[in-house]
Amino acid sequence: MPNSKKRYAFIVSDRTGLTAEAMAHSLLSQFPEIDFKTETFTFVDTAAKAGELVKRCHSIRSSTGHSPLVFLTMVNEELRSQFKRAEVEVFDLFDTFIGPMEQRLGIKSSHTIGRSHGVTDEKAYTSRIAAVHFALQTDDGMDIEHYRQADLIIVGVSRCGKTPTSLYLSLHYGLYVSNYPLTDHELEQKRLPEALQEFKEKLFGLTIDPFRLLQIRQQRFAESNYSTAATCQREIAQAEALFRSHQLPWLNTTRMSVEEIGAMVVNRTKSIRGVRV
Amino acid sequence: MPNSKKRYAFIVSDRTGLTAEAMAHSLLSQFPEIDFKTETFTFVDTAAKAGELVKRCHSIRSSTGHSPLVFLTMVNEELRSQFKRAEVEVFDLFDTFIGPMEQRLGIKSSHTIGRSHGVTDEKAYTSRIAAVHFALQTDDGMDIEHYRQADLIIVGVSRCGKTPTSLYLSLHYGLYVSNYPLTDHELEQKRLPEALQEFKEKLFGLTIDPFRLLQIRQQRFAESNYSTAATCQREIAQAEALFRSHQLPWLNTTRMSVEEIGAMVVNRTKSIRGVRV
């Protein structure tokens, strides 16, 4: 019965669903044998919308024999209980912890909706947006005269992931992150590019498996000299040698997501240099 | 006793801590009377690191009378139990659900570490990176000849949040998102700019409170005509009139975070046009 390992999972939130999605994916990934068909429902904030979903759960149960696993984050008691009353298989990601927290803190929770992704601190928010603009302005070696303002300068060869990493760090952590490409010519010199020498303590190197780099480069510039195995191998070896000789913190990003790279850069940066996040 | 409402909260993860952080902030925001001092500890993956944290919990309890609330996401049983044995106040965000899930699914979980933010699907990952490059390439009205490839084109006046929204949608959802600024001149015309007319079904409008826009613009170009109350008010009124007359989906972003704007755009887009995410 190949189909017996296929299950539905619904992620249901009264707001953006971002937290619920992250949690649910983390939990579901612990059951790799099962082929989950997941669907996210956001802004489920009325009894009608909740009722619609309960109906879908029942109809899936009728046709497959299994109710979907429902991962809920909802503040409204009444909406939550619509699911529970209906004998749907609910994992209440939120309410499960609110009770024990109330007990330990000795006060009642406010039961207000979706505070976590809203703009609670306007200053912090504005500075995240400013950080994104800074990252764009100083992307790919542009506007090096602003490096004094940077919290971090990501360095690495072309297409190793510098731009998405810089943007993620600015969007998520509000850091001022520039990035600077190590080009063929500069790598041949075997020394830090002029523009970076003054800012050694802000540098963070990214590297990647040469074969993965080759794949990425070939997708864009199949015919170029830049996309040969030999070039990729040489550039990566030279970049890593440079990181080592200057004792820069660096990271191999092969098979890491932007989120992981970002968290790891911040983790290392905090312990190495105490940048505030 | 003003200090009695101050409490420590530790977020402890064996990986990036992103999921744990989102959940913990969502839970803590339900207790607005308490001034939580939160700290996140990522990549806590050895007994030594866990032991260090347990010690800190005990020392905080000695000095404040309260143990920190510890929000854990850890796959390793042994590390988790270091906290539990030490009588620290643990909220186990992960393990709390694994048991009930095993029961309902009828199989054991794999207990493998941090799958959720890793690159599990290389194709999906590469396409997110490609989406970021597309968003950069078609930022702020550039490269309009690529609009045929776009999933969405964000439109709005200058500094209303188009760029961060486009980047977030591309990074998080892998959507191909362009953005196009509605300029003074185009707004006066009271019709859709030439470049957009062919792609009406891909347009999504952003607007913002004129006073908030004024603040943002003044931070950058204090002296310009562009940063007067009258200009902001007129531009926003004209942009909203344009959205209405063309029946574009649109959103007022005042006081919304990029995450909320992103989730809401996707939510509306799904239901309106069935873009696949």
Automatic annotation (TrEMBL), chains A, B:
Keywords: Kinase, Nucleotide-binding, Pyruvate, Serine/threonine-protein kinase, Transferase. Its EC number is 2.7.11.33, 2.7.4.28. It catalyses: [pyruvate, water dikinase] + ADP = [pyruvate, water dikinase]-phosphate + AMP + H(+); [pyruvate, water dikinase]-phosphate + phosphate + H(+) = [pyruvate, water dikinase] + diphosphate. InterPro entries: Kinase-pyrophosphorylase (IPR005177), PSRP (IPR026530). ADP binds at G156, V157, S158, R159, C160, G161, K162, T163. Pfam families: Kinase-PPPase (PF03618). One of its GO terms (molecular function) is ADP binding. Belongs to the pyruvate, phosphate/water dikinase regulatory protein family. PSRP subfamily. HAMAP family: PSRP. Bifunctional serine/threonine kinase and phosphorylase involved in the regulation of the phosphoenolpyruvate synthase (PEPS) by catalyzing its phosphorylation/dephosphorylation. This is Putative phosphoenolpyruvate synthase regulatory protein. The gene is ppsR.
